[in-house]
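Hi L.,

As promised, CENP-V/GFA domain-containing protein:
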Amino acid sequence: MSTISGSCNCGAIKVTIPRPQNSVLCHCTSCRKSGGTIYSTNLVTDPKDLNVEGAPSQYRATGFSGHDVVRNFCGKCGSPVFTTIADPSQVFVKAGLFEPGQIPKAAAELFSKNMEEWESVHEGAARVENQ
């Protein structure tokens, strides 16, 4: 299995995942606020395939579904690292951890109802109003 590896801004947290086939963009208000951007780019993988070196800090909140959303981030530099949701088969690894050229096209844009009026859905991506 081919993998990709990346790290937070300061290098204290390193991650390795299987090379993804696509990415998912999330426009939920929680992703906007935690990343300081209008959407987050995520590589969705099975948690058992996520290898993390270092100890991320966590922020736990209630998501749109009413279930916990756990945001893992570097406690030194603040970089978002990965997010877990109620579905135990998925973890959302933040694409910005990886070097340019390793991120595939978006397959979907989640919470697209929160997109700015001047934004458009990326070509080939499914528009999902909620998750």
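The mean pLDDT is 93.

Thanks again for sending the construct details.

K.
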